[in-house]
Fold each of these.
Amino acid sequence: MAQGEKIIGIDLGTTNSVVAVMEGSEPKVIPNPEGNRLTPSVVAFTDNADTIVGEPARRQAVTNPTRTVYSVKRFIGRRHNEVEGEEKMVPYGVTGAAGEYVKIKVGDKEHTPQEISAKVLRKLKESAESYLGHKVNKAVITVPAYFNDSQRQATKDAGQIAGLEVARIINEPTAAALAYGLDKKKDEKIVVFDLGGGTFDVSVLEVADSGDDDSSSRVFQVVSTSGDTHLGGDDFDEALIHHVADKFKAESGVDLRSDPMALQRLQEACEKAKKELSTLPQTDINLPFITMDSAGQPKHLTMSISRSTFEELIDDLVQRCKKPLMQALQDAGMQPSDIDEIVLVGGSTRVPKVRAVVKEVFGKEPHQGVNPDEVVAVGAAIQGAVLAGDRTDVLLLDVTPLTLGIETEGGVLTPLVERNTTVPVEKKNVFSTAADGQSAVTVRVFQGERKMANANRLLGEFNLEGIPPAPRGTPQIEVKFDIDQNGILSVSAKELGTGKEASVTINEAAGLDESEIEQMRKDAEANADEDRRQFELAEARNKANNMTYQLEKLMKDNDEKLTDDDKAPLEQAIEKVKKAAEGDDTAAIKQATDELEAASQAFTKVLYEKGGSETAGAEGGAAAAGSAAAADADGADDDAIDAEFEVKD
């Protein structure tokens, strides 16, 4: 590794992603080009096949719902039959046969979740490179502790496609514990309660010094972990969406869930309401012109939501957190009273009902000293510094979240690696044949806690052939499981008499071989400049369209007071902007937009002199309207949900 080269830490989240790096002894969360520390995990494809990532993609989702992909973390490394519930709540296409890995369909093209995630990772990589002033080649990427082998491998593949060597995959709660406990001086037992947008994890850790001398390391040992990969803030949003949609349907006869654009607007409004109810006792959802009734009349949605109503809607979901929490404590051999601190991670832990349940279980308030949105990325950056050799005072001991084993006679799962085993680890066991004269065996590898193999997740299988014929039970077949520090499994089987051997690395999970990953990585690199150019063009068009809309509306509202001569200069400038926006010349669009801003200044003066609208009378007048549109296109107005017209939620 080159002198001074950094290994960045990335929290690849369901809703938002964060990148951080260690600068000396201090972690630094790196802002994106929009100036924000959180990057929405959203990727959009325009009708022109352009790609937009992050906040700009989120902003245009309402008018482009079927081509805007979000919450893809719920689909990564999973087969289609495993996501039947999740796919119904997204407006984009989710395809694949029951036993096949999920693909995302946008238009007539299919993308793997790894490709979508790679676009988010590439944006984070570029943000880090811009901040550091040099290329970034390596990253530590976090995953939910309860991610299975398939999901871990798929996440690693996403990193490779983005042009990153994934130095380590670590569990999100473990990363959070690193960030929390790095500078603590006392020995502690802590629980990390991680409720994000799409997943819930809980881990029990012991944090201690390895010795009394100055060279001792701070040891972070994961004792147990548990979780639910189908529980998160998205589910809170969904509960509220159904509540609002059901009430609206009862009142108007229209089901908003059948209209992708209306559903996208409702989803954004409910997410916003959820956040507001974390600090307010009540909030309002206002969505004008949300749909039309059977007579073609526009319908508006206006509804008040109280915190108590919201808490009733999510109560079952919040209560589901208790079972994994108590399971993790039981596996660790601890009681709630044994825990010194509870560290909350993930934006969903801001919901008061969630904090109340944590307090109910432990009898005390959770720790408030970390930013739940950033702490995981900070911990990943710390681990990156350890791997880069910049920190030698940290030792991380993580565990495998689920039992791993093989199918044996009768369809039974015989475990080789029990859940909560510290990794990396190697385990061996000797098996034999089930029939006389058997010359081959099939080794089927499963992950899960069920007694019968087929009730668990099949990770892979392979054949060991060439076994000398012998009575059943005679051949000695050694099966070895090897789990690396990323939690990724390799399995081998060896017939001890002949030395015949076969093996498999469980990396088929992503449905991608190395050549496909390499091709996707090359495609991403080859298209990076073009993607950036198309992004700048889209932003310029958005700004132009917003400004023309605002100014045309201003002219229409004051039409009776204006002559054709009054309007002509502004109309000409507007037409020039519209014509420029139809083309692909970003500079021309920007120049036309600047000229329109100047024309709006002159129009302001005319309108003010004629006693026009209140907008014109305000300081800045029509120019203020144009500037507001420009600011909206630049992301200054987070409530704006369309690049072409502004509808306030």
Note: The CA atoms of residues 373 and 635 lie 20 Å apart.
Amino acid sequence: MPPKRKADGDDKKAPETKKSKAKEPVKPLDPTQPVNKQLPEELGAYEKGEGVTRMTCWNIAGYNASVKKGMHRYINAEPADLLVLTETKIDKEPNDEILKSNYKHSVWTGSTKKGYAGIAVLWNGEEARNVETILPTHPNQDSTRGRIITLEFEDKFVIGTYVPNAGQGLKAMDDKVAWNSAFKTYLHNLNEKKSVVWLGDLNVCHDSKDIRNDKSNWNKSAGWTETEVNGYKEQLSDKFVDAWKELHPDNVGQYTYFGYRFDARSKGIGWRIDSCVVSRGLMGRVEDVVIRMEVYGASDHVPVCIDFKAVDEQASK
């Protein structure tokens, strides 16, 4: 019997299995970004210049929970003249001596649904000439309670908002579209009367720099869809300016929300959805807009502050 022939390839060595490279750990895009998960015991001295007016917005993700996690440490540290607290999840003003000692005036409003939404504006200085706690241009005004507070002052309107979320699986997109349309009309109507400052949780990203994983979330996650982004840009039009974006157009990794899941804070996986918007004519008075990146832990959001320079009375005459 002739010797067996080797099958083709018998002499070839089996291909070596390539070892897959270990994935690099996900890190913040900005290496200087704090990654603390609890509110620091000591906060920096948040100074402001003479004559500067500071307005601050902060989604506290539930007043009662935030107080337990150290909310008051930040309230005492920040010399804000006006403070917008969103997602308070309470329907009436709490008996809070710390807030009362820091602010002379306050308006609190809650949702018709208990433990849901909720917003407050606290401030010093002049009393408001008028206060509105609904979105009057919305076809279902009751649904906007706990979402908006408008204060009218002598020279401007200040609007605080906790804008509705489009929901898991974008199930509430119709509600978001209705809000966006009504709010655009309202915002522009006010702007025809006097300047407007709009701040709070806007629940939308302005562009791809405002979200870490922009490609995987696009048109899938609430706050980062074509419908919502276009709605926001239509609200701004040529009349309003996203003040942080205007002053920091090239910054990356600066976010205001880091979810508690998946170690998002340590990885720098966040969204910039809390912001300060001003009438274009006011932008010249904006000294700075700052995201308080280190003030994390009392909420899954961090505060945003906008500083306005003092009005030069001689120049304004």
Note: Confidence is low (pLDDT under 50) at residues 1-12, 313-317.
